[in-house]
Design brief:
- The protein has 207 residues and is α+β, with helices and mostly antiparallel strands.
- The chain has helices spanning 2-15, 163-182, 190-203, and strands spanning 20-27, 33-36, 45-52, 88-91, 98-101, 109-112, 151-154, 157-160.
- The strands form 3 sheets. The protein has a 3-stranded antiparallel β-sheet with strand order 2-1-3, with helices on one face. A 3-stranded antiparallel β-sheet has the order 5-4-8, with no helix packed on it. A two-stranded antiparallel sheet has the order 6-7.
- Helix 2 runs antiparallel to helix 3 (190-203).
- The longest helix is centred in the last third of the chain and has 20 residues, at 163-182.
- The two termini are 79 Å apart.
- The model is unreliable at 122-132 (pLDDT under 50).
């Protein structure tokens, strides 16, 4: 062990000059060579070597502190639940076709008598009901119709949807909206995403 240490010191001393130190080179009667820091034993050939001392160890450079990593911005908190919108199933007065509306009491509107299949000069009154013409006091509106006849007042009839039907409608709208967002350019998504967030907030009342 001591021999290996001295050999390493010798190699370092040859490479880097410094202050000298004494090392004993010993060869015994059997011709074995040894280097040591004490005089050789009797009957050994001794030679004193002046070797330079190794330079002082250079401290390793201090490591730079790690740069703080930029964490992703926190996700915005979910919007609070919004009340379910009121939806109505309405029947159009002119063709009796159903549609959905957020207005449960639509305003009356004028349509030509011919659209309702009524003769322009007919004085018959329809029984009240869904899609029945609503005649205000007085004669029909005296406007010439492009369908050849006078106008009369009608009003669509609406009934509120049950809660389960409203929730189903919101889910269907949200599915269509998410698909539309996926196929829309990034700079056009903001209003669609706002609408989708509103639907999700309303759907929290459907759980």
């Amino acid at each position: 062990m001591r021999t290996r240490l001295l050999l390493m010191l010798l190699l370092l001393a040859l490479a880097v000059p410094a202050h000298a130190t004494e090392v004993y080179r010993c060869v015994d009667a059997r011709g074995r060579l040894a280097f040591q820091d004490q005089p050789c034993p009797p009957r050994s050939r001794q030679r004193i070597l002046n070797l330079p001392m190794p330079p002082p160890a250079v401290p390793a450079p201090a490591l730079a502190p790690p740069r703080p990593t930029r964490s992703a911005p926190p996700a915005p908190p979910p919007r609070p639940a919004l009340p379910l919108p009121a939806l109505y199933r309405c029947i159009r007065a002119t063709d009796h076709k159903p549609y959905l509306s957020t207005i449960g009491d639509p305003q009356p509107y004028a349509v030509p008598l011919a659209v309702l299949g009524i003769q322009p000069m007919s004085t018959a009154r329809s029984a009240p009901g869904i899609g029945a013409p609503l005649r205000p006091p007085g004669p029909p509106t005296p406007l010439v119709s492009p369908f050849t006849g006078y106008y009369t007042w009608v009003q669509d009839r609406c009934a509120p949807l049950p809660r389960a039907a409203v929730c189903a409608n919101l889910r269907e709208r949200l599915d269509r909206l998410d698909t539309r967002i996926e196929h829309t350019f990034q700079f056009d998504r903001a209003p669609l995403q706002h609408e989708a967030a509103t639907l999700r907030a309303q759907l929290r009342n459907c759980r």
